[in-house]
Amino acid sequence: MKTDIANKIMNGTFGTVWVNNEKWQDIKAFEAKATAEYEDVNVQGVLGKGRKYIGFEGAGSITTHKVYSRGAKIIGDAFKTGIMPDIKIISKLDDPAAFGAERVVYYGVTFDEITLSKFEGKTPGEEELPFKFVDFEFKDLV
């Protein structure tokens, strides 16, 4: 029986994010999920409602410490001109005490909003950038 499993739990402190191949050093938190989409299907002779998988929606959020104007630099002009940039995100969680690293690439990324201004007295600043993605690929799994 393994007794050292607690030491193998991955620690988010070792998470890294790249946006268009630029490593962001100011990451506070990152999350991305793929949510299944189904169409309800009625099947003759079956009283329960069936479900047909028709795809997924990818969504996530990057939270940064407010060091740079991340949102403004990436999509500020795009929101005003209507010309959206091609964006790719790579996330990596690589805790040296764990069994290995987990790396995922997100393609067709579009950001949903940018915070134009936000601050609060005696509070470190942060910026949240919610996004959606079209596709993903696991590059490394634990």
Structure description:
The protein is mainly β. The chain has a single domain, classed as Roll (Pnp Oxidase, Chain A), CATH 2.30.110. 11% of the residues lie in helices and 49% in strands. It has 2 helices and 8 strands. Strands 1, 2, 3, 4, 5, 6, 7 and 8 form an 8-stranded antiparallel β-sheet that branches. Strand 5 and strand 6 form a beta hairpin. It is globular and about 65 Å long.
- The percent range for strand residues is over 45%
The CATH class name reads Mainly Beta
Described by strand count, sense and barrel closure, the largest sheet is: 8 strands, antiparallel
Cα-atom radius of gyration: 19 Å
Named at the architecture level, the CATH assignment is Roll
The total count of helices amounts to: 2
Structural class: mainly beta
**Helix coverage percent:** 10-25%
How many E strands? 8
Parts with pLDDT < 50 across at least 5 consecutive residues: none
Features:
single chain, 142 residues, mainly beta, Pnp Oxidase, Chain A, eight-stranded antiparallel sheet, 2 helices, 8 strands, globular
Write a short abstract of this structure:
The chain has 142 residues and is mainly beta.
